[in-house]
Amino acid sequence: MTLLRTVARPMLASVFFAGAANALKNTTTIAPKAKPVADAISGATGQPVAPATLVRINAGTQLLAAAGLATGRAPRLSALVLAGSLAPTTVVGHQFWNQSDPVAAKNQRLHFVKNVSVIGGLLMATLDPDPHKKFIGTRAKNKVVDAKDKVVDEISDLRR
């Protein structure tokens, strides 16, 4: 892992450690926001789903994926999982359009946009190539060049 990745990945993961810890500490406070999602899942599956359970599952998922991103273990997969878990969290948790208080709406809009920005950073991290492996495009080009060189050498040998 390069120095930049060594520093940047834990920095990006830190917000998920803090958010997941907060969600686990304050599950009962956060659970009502997850009720619409729990109801939708219950309707689709026919099985009851407790909102508090969804909050805990999301927090656990974010802790595990944040650890993977921070340590560089499966960082691209971890970033994708974090982006996937943050998207519904953002829509459910920061509904600025439903706020009647302008100050609360402004605060929720700020958090909504911040989360969208973090999702963008995570999606970029999913594309971050392993520094020890060449980018797939470069590897493909090298294979084509090697094959061409081999054909040219064989044609040269046949002409002799």
In short:
This protein has 160 residues and is an all-alpha fold.
**H/I helix tally:** 6
Largest sheet: none
Task: List the domain count as a whole number.
Answer: 2
Shape: elongated
How far is the N terminus from the C terminus? 49 Å
Rg over CA atoms, rounded to whole Å, is: 23 Å
Fold topology:
Elements: H1 3-25, H2 27-45, H3 51-71, H4 75-93, H5 102-126, H6 136-159
Descriptive terms for the model:
single chain, 160 residues, mainly alpha, 2 domains, 6 helices, 82% helix, elongated
Written overview of the protein:
The structure is a single chain. The mean pLDDT is 90. The protein folds into two domains: 3-128, no CATH class; 133-160. It contains six helices and no strands. It has helices spanning 3-25, 27-45, 51-71, 75-93, 102-126, 136-159. The protein is mainly alpha-helical. The radius of gyration is 23 Å and the shape is elongated. Helix 2 packs across helix 3 (51-71) and helix 4 runs antiparallel to helix 5.
